[in-house]
């Protein structure tokens, strides 16, 4: 008897449906074909024990299982459940006439229980696209898949729960998740607030601009001035995720296997803070079976690199292409996958090895030591950072001032207002949602400046030695400053403020 059911394989952040054909014939053998890896081949032992411990059996027959398409490698233990369901149906132990209308995934324990899987959200999206009726999967992953509308999702704790859906679907209710309620519950979850920060008004202004336009920013200052404290409060002023952004972000975290059990949707922007000992593979993604790295896990959020010069130069250099293209391609001999990586880079650093600014006669660091320290960060990488902010120590009077600073919620409202202007402006442009993503072609349309502004910018470029990329970054930042003020055009004052945020491009910065 031949029975077909469906599993799924994840490549990158997308899924491919796998047709599982189970044929039972006379003889004694168990053949599993279709390019399975070792974990899939080992499913025979798990299935045999799980069926025996739940009142079923793996019959002594010739069982041939084909996993199509046969030229795509099948990896992992999540195919246990569809293989077991196919065997039970093909051997007549259950009556499941609609088994080919469901996507089934799950790893079996020897007692018949189900273990969590990775990538259930992209699997559910693909199942809906292919017209399948429902998705049977482990209970721990069910809420994640249930946010996909138009697909019935059935959580299962063990084989018996899965069989109930296939043999008596009227007795089981699919899981329903209220996406709007999930988003509402995430509002106000940020614990860190800018009102806690004393002084540093110029830095807060720069961070507001960065958040409003999605710009990369670096904070430079001696130890203890509040660089990390400020950076960790940026998520509280970013605009909320849209549903599309939340789905895309959740897909990446699901594929990486780091989505908490029972979570249905990531509703707040990611904040990734890798240690400076991170490897280039961990940062950009990769491995023999490619997985997303920190830059993809920060997609639609923030990648915070504290003490930037302490990272290996080879690690920092892999950031250059993703910062420009907002996507990273990982190629291996047998597969090439794309991971989105549209993140806001926030970095901090000391200006010298000892941490103090270079001041002849006062610092223990020689000018050579300072220049060698700063040279750990390449010019092309620094060029891709839109705002360079010097963070100075806070005066004692400001530290003792008990007047609370402006709250994150107030700043966030201005940021949301600027983002709404950008959303309307770029509504017809695919893949562009903020000023930081502007292409040269779009800049000609949306970053026009008048004669006074052009003279100002020309003087800055000639005197300070800005590169062509720095020139473009200044225009994008000026466009964001104008949006924060509700201005349709870029004024000279907007350009002047944007120019002052390129401190590391200035000649004599160390002098």
Overview of this protein structure:
Helix content is 38%, strand content 17%. The protein has 511 residues and is α/β, with parallel strands linked by helices. The chain has two domains: 2-171, Ribosomal Protein S5, domain 2 (2-Layer Sandwich); 187-431, 3-Layer(aba) Sandwich (Rossmann fold). The strands form six sheets. The chain has a five-stranded parallel β-sheet. The protein has a four-stranded mixed β-sheet with strand order 1-2-4-3. α8 (201-213) runs parallel beside α18. The longest helix has 18 residues, at 408-425. The termini are far apart. The relative contact order is 0.10. The model has no long low-confidence stretch (mean pLDDT 89).
What is this entry, summarized?
This protein is α/β, with parallel strands linked by helices and 511 residues long. The chain contains 22 helices and 18 strands.
